[in-house]
Each structure stands twice: as structure tokens, then as C-alpha cells.
């Protein structure tokens, strides 16, 4: 399923951000441009970090930026942004962040299968290498598709 909600035009490589807020905005911009999320959704991601801390920095070097669906998630989608250089999100355990996955989930259930698949990908060291080394979003999307097929075969 994750390969269906990530599209090439939602993947950004070699992105330079000034700070964590800029990284969130830059990672969400393709979703805003395609009207998948509203600008308010992006503001709510930032407001949530200001209120609760960088809770969505979920693994070393990985952020899963998201906000409540009611904040402006119009459809199920996920963007991927590879930051160069990495940015501090002020999460002592997992900083600095190199990879921002921006999730738009219009309800509380439709994204759960994709999240399982993302966890599988994040447990694969090769995935990070592909994210870092890819020169084209299609390479990342192909790796994700191949990994999903591999995961299905292993079940």
C-alpha cells in the first residue's frame, strides 16, 4: 500500500533547510502544491512540535511529520524529503534528521497498513542508503515497490 501513497512528485532529494521548521515546510510543500494538505495542516505540524516537542522524530535520523486529519489532510499520501545537510529537530535520541516522511491521513485508519510497511522499510539499512544515494525519485519509489513485494513474499 505504501507504494500507492508515495508518488515521484512527492519525493524531494538534496533539500537544504535552515532549521527544523523550514525542513517541515519544505517537506510538506509538494503536498500543499498538489492540494493533498492545506497550509494550515503544515502550520499545525509546527504548532504540535512547539507544544509537545519533536515527538514525530521516530527513529535515528527519521521524522514522520503529520498533524490531525481535521487540520487539513485532504487525501491519503506520503512525501519523502532527504535533507542535506541533516537538521537538528531537538530530539536527543534521534537527531540530526536526514529523512522527513510527511504523512497526510484523512482519517484514523486508512494509513495503518502503509505505516506497517514504513516500519519494515525503516528496519532495512539498505533503505537509508537508497534514500541518501538516489539521484532520482524513481529510484526510491522502485526500491519501495520491490521491498513491499519482498515483504509480501516473506509473510
Task: Give an account of the 3D structure.
The protein contains 6 helices and 5 strands, in the order αβααββββααα. With about 160 residues, it is of the alpha/beta class. It has a single domain (about 1-155), classed as 3-Layer(aba) Sandwich (Mannitol-specific EII, Chain A). A 5-stranded mixed beta sheet has the order 1-4-5-3-2. β2 and β3 form a beta hairpin. It is globular, with a radius of gyration of 14 Å.
DSSP strand content: 15-25%
DSSP helix fraction: 40-55%
CATH architecture: 3-Layer(aba) Sandwich
What count of structural domains?
Answer: 1
On the 0 to 100 scale, the average pLDDT is: 94
Overall shape: it is globular
Structural class: alpha/beta
CATH superfamily: Mannitol-specific EII, Chain A
Return Rg in Å. Answer: 14 Å
Strand order within the widest beta sheet: 1-4-5-3-2
For the secondary structure, the number of strands is: 5
What is the distance, rounded to the nearest whole angstrom, between the alpha carbons of the first and last residues? 15 Å
Q: What's the order of the H and E elements?
A: HEHHEEEEHHH
Amino acid at each position: 500500500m505504501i507504494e500507492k501513497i508515495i508518488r515521484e512528485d512527492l519525493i524531494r532529494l538534496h533539500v537544504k533547510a535552515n532549521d527544523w521548521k523550514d525542513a517541515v515546510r519544505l517537506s510538506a510543500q509538494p503536498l500543499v502544491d498538489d492540494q493533498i494538505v492545506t497550509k494550515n495542516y503544515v502550520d499545525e505540524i509546527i504548532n504540535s512540535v512547539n507544544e509537545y516537542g519533536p515527538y514525530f522524530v521516530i527513529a535515528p535520523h527519521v521524522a514522520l511529520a503529520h498533524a490531525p486529519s481535521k487540520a487539513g489532510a485532504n487525501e491519503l499520501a506520503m512525501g519523502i524529503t532527504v535533507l542535506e545537510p541533516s537538521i537538528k529537530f531537538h530530539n536527543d535520541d534521534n537527531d540530526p534528521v536526514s529523512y522527513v516522511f510527511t504523512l497526510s491521513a484523512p482519517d484514523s485508519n486508512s494509513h495503518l497498513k502503509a505505516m506497517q510497511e514504513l516500519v519494515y522499510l525503516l528496519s532495512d539499512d539498505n533503505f537509508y542508503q537508497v534514500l541518501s544515494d538516489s539521484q532520482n525519485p524513481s529510484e526510491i519509489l522502485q526500491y519501495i515497490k520491490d521491498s513491499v513485494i519482498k515483504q509480501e513474499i516473506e509473510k
